[in-house]
Sequence to fold (119 residues):
Amino acid sequence: QEQLVESGGGFVQPGGSLKLSCKSPRTILSVFTSSDLGWFRQGPGEERELVARITSGGIIDYADSVKGRFTISKDNSKRMVYLQMGNLKSADTAVYYCTREESGVPMYWGQGTRVTVGE
Fold:
């Protein structure tokens, strides 16, 4: 069964940085390489939202709220996708999930990693 596993969450003060990682060790390499990948988040009492997305060809999109602060990247050879987060704000507090799409739909999800931004 395919499984995505996130890591790297934690507590950070406003203005700080964190790097989230997501691995998909059971995905066939060719499938991972040809997949579009993304990071979603769900804050307390909020709906889940797309934060960043990277296509198999390397086209990247970000939510307006994180543009200029977050960077998504991937390493196909390692079956990894990353989310570098900088200048973190309290509004970034959320559980972050990585996803792998099939036919344009986030089909596979990790269990999430919690990010808390506070004093």
